[in-house]
Amino acid sequence: MGKTASGVKCSVPGCGNQAVRSVSQAEVQAAGLSTRETRRAYLCRDHYKELKKRRRENKRIERWRYKA
Ligand SMILES: [Zn+2]
Asked: Is the predicted pLDDT of residue 19 greater than 80, yes or no?
């Protein structure tokens, strides 16, 4: 069994894929994504990958900002 109930859809607007992960809203915002949910967000495999990727990029950018 996965981490989400079956039939849950991805929370990213315009994406109707099956969700495979639930993440906190803080994680979503840290990645610069927006979702319809205000508490936990559900992400499909693609958007979960994108969230992880974007979070890495944002961290790098923040580090540059602190240095400047
Ligand atoms: Zn999605």
From this structure: yes
